[in-house]
Amino acid sequence: MKHRYLLLLPLTLIISLSACQSRPPVPEPRYTPNVALNASETLEVMPYRSACHSATPMQCLLVKPVGADDDKLFGIGYNDIIGFTPTVGTAYTIKVRQEIDQNTGKPTGLWQLDEILTQNIR
């Protein structure tokens, strides 16, 4: 019987002390990125799509800098170039600017379309 009270004593103390919190918890402030646009780049958009490596299944545009070899291909999310609605089977040359979070110096993953220079149906 005595051992049972010894086990209940720490539990009672923990419950009692947790009720004595003097201030309610304060949530962390919401992070707001400070977005800026990088210098304009000219990219070739391939006429076909590829599966992206991401948390959710999606299609990526395959792009590369103008004049670069195919080993420089990289993916941009299908809807991640704001102002650009590509058509499957059409190759494009576009001028875009990448969004950068100035607080972290890292890309946000979004791009802004400046201009469609060429489009070729393949």
Automatic annotation (TrEMBL):
Segments forming domain DUF4377: 45-104
Recorded superkingdom: Bacteria
Signal peptide limits: 1-21
Keywords: Signal
InterPro entries cross-referenced by the UniProt entry: DUF4377
Protein name: DUF4377 domain-containing protein
Lineage of producing organism: Bacteria, Pseudomonadati, Pseudomonadota, Gammaproteobacteria, Moraxellales
Species of provenance: Moraxella caprae
Pfam families xref list: DUF4377
